[in-house]
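Hi C.,

You asked whether I'd gotten around to modeling the 454-residue construct. I have! Everything is below, sequence then structure, no commentary in between.
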Amino acid sequence: MPSDLPSDARILVVDDHVEMGRMLQEPLADAGWTVDLATGGQEALTLIRSRVYDAVLTDLRMEKVDGLDVLDAARAVDPELPVLLMTAFGGVESAVEAMRRGAYHYFTKPFRLDEVRLYLGRALEDRRLRAEHRALKQASQERAGLGALVGRSAPMRGLYELIDRVAHAAAPVLLRGESGSGKELVARALHVEGPRASNPFVAVNCTALPGPLLESELFGHVKGAFTGATSVRRGLFVEAHGGTLFLDEIGDMPTELQARLLRILEDGEVRAVGSDASRTVDVRVVAATHQDLEARVREGRFRADLFYRLNVVTLRVPSLKERREDIPQLVEHFTARSRTRNPRSRVASLSPEVVAALGAMPWPGNVRELENLVERLVVLVPQETVTLEDLRPHAPVPEPAAPLAQAQEGVWTLRKLEGEYIHWMVQHCGGNKTRAAELLGIDVSTIHRRERER
């Protein structure tokens, strides 16, 4: 097999003439592919529905279940699974019909094995390129401003409105919120939605590097400035010129670097380590922290003047427990994204019971923790729908307490009890408000109205 053809692939060969099937199986396996052999259409249907294949090579004329049936089954499981057909001359008309129905290619018997290898390689390469294109498109969408932020809860709607107002301002922005709540996504949205969108967005985590390395990373250095400085380094402020520099976990920045950052914010000039010359930069700084900066100022661990300079515009990113009604939408979003990253997964959705259980979990790691759990389920669960039994080995499954039990711990008004019961029922239905309204015997608009009142 030519070295430029994909070799990491699983192929299903289908032929009710066992000798013909083995004649194809062996040389394709020798070419580096994993090859399964089905000795009839019915066996092929079973294999296609139980295993993940990258291509199918099937005879057209077979008894009971023919190649067109195999084609239909393959496309039902995976619309992009390439199916190649083999047919005698008299079956060309049927093969052409199969092409109209989505077959990738057909071979007329007798055919050459090198021709089969060539077209299989092309089919596998096309499949790989489509997967890469989807991944790039998804990554682009994830970087695209407000479109990257998922959720319709009241806290998120308020955040969207603030982003829309703040994006076009020039002042620094301080993002506050718990770890994993999505502060970098908000920073990217501020960049993309504002006038600097066509210029660089550069991000750095202030806890990821020790002080001297962080100084060089941010401000750059000249050749020979310190041991190991064998070349010039521009620094992230220069790289972000005209755009946005996102300083994540600003509260952990060493105090000696805080003074340099303050000067850049005040006069717009950056000086590389070891240089006598300054350079003017036009950079909007967006900083983020999960820490109590006011407390760190009182402790002398964060400069008060830098805090006041950064605190001109502050956006608070809500934690996941403050926006639990967004969990069904987040789960759907993360499931789709995980399936793109793991195309061999059979998981298509999480059951309503699982979504309801996720809605009742504490989520100390916020959205990042939820995303990681969903991807773990997509990778490990072997069937289309994730059930509570699938969830239990990976996360504690809480039983959401009914509002009446909670109300007994204190004095609740009847209206609050009603509102909490409606909210609990929506969670119980996995976020499906239409189903919750049916069970409650109310109109779905009542649920929307009561949510706005919470």
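If it helps when you're writing up: The first helix runs from residue 18 to 30.

Thanks,
B.
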